[in-house]
Amino acid sequence: MSTIAPLIAGNWKMNGLTHSLEELSELARLLTTGEAPRAVVVVCPPATLLATMASQGASSGILAGGQDCHAQSAGAHTGDISASMLADAGAQFVIVGHSERRADHGESDDLVRAKAEAAIGAGLKPIICVGESDAQRDAGEAEAVVSAQLAASIPDAAEHHEVVVAYEPIWAIGTGRTPTLEEIHDIHAAIRARLVDRFGLSRGETIRILYGGSLKPQNAREILAVDNVNGGLVGGASLLAKDFYTIISAV
Ligand code: 13P
After folding, report:
1. In terms of CB atoms within 10 Å, which end of the chain has fewer, N or C?
2. How many CA atoms are closer than 13 Å to the CA of 205, on its beta-carbon side?
């Protein structure tokens, strides 16, 4: 997959106040003074910081992303945010179907697909998350669960529009536990096979598959070198510029 430029995205989740933008400045400094990164760099801050981050990051090549969007483009949905609002604030990407949204807000694959469609409609690139639970992996169902999520969460529009898949085993998120390199290899190969089955060889091979779940400076190099791992989705370690930069540099 060497033809795909790797992508490293930071997901700040519900973390970050105005002063946290200092981390973005520090990241920009590291990115512009060090060796040029080989990866596309995206930061997904809370919506409150998105517009500032998008304009502040532009000069150093840091792209901005949202963490979620509504499936509708506008309307009576108090507290929600639409894909076009994110785009208007300067976002180029949006995470949809994160396991925390699926768990905390009962989001189904159908809803995730509708959100991905809305994102594409607004000119954003959706980062569509999938991943199995602990119990599902122990039961030997990881591949089946992820395949079903992919089938139902990725819209047909992915044939002609850029989408990113993020494989995030739920049990690895925020736990410090990661799958073995062999497990990552096998499930990313299975995801690639599903994408090629559905979209054909030339399209299916160009869709990025990110790994997420306790990706850290200490393990980034070996995980990001696994076949069909085209980058990472980073939670906790994206909050500190130094750690996030080390992961970006590991590509
Ligand atoms: P951690 O990197 O904190 O495990 O979070 C991963 C994640 O959920 C990114 O979306």
Report:
1. N
2. 7
100, 107, 117, 168: which is the annotated catalytic residue? 168
pTM (2 decimals)? 0.98
183 is catalytic: no
Give ∠ CA 134-43-117 in degrees, rounded to 5: 70
Give CATH for domain 7-14+38-70+80-249.
3.20.20.70
Nearest to 126 by CA among 215, 239, 62, 44: 44
pLDDT of residue 34: 81
**Distance (Å, whole) CA 237 – CA 58:** 21
Note the pLDDT of residue 215.
98
Instruction: Report whether residue 31 contacts ligand 1, using a CB cutoff of 6 Å.
Output: no
For a pocket test of ligand 1, which of 173, 175, 223 has the largest count of ligand atoms closer than 8 A to its C-beta?
173
Contact 196, 158 (CB under 8 A): no
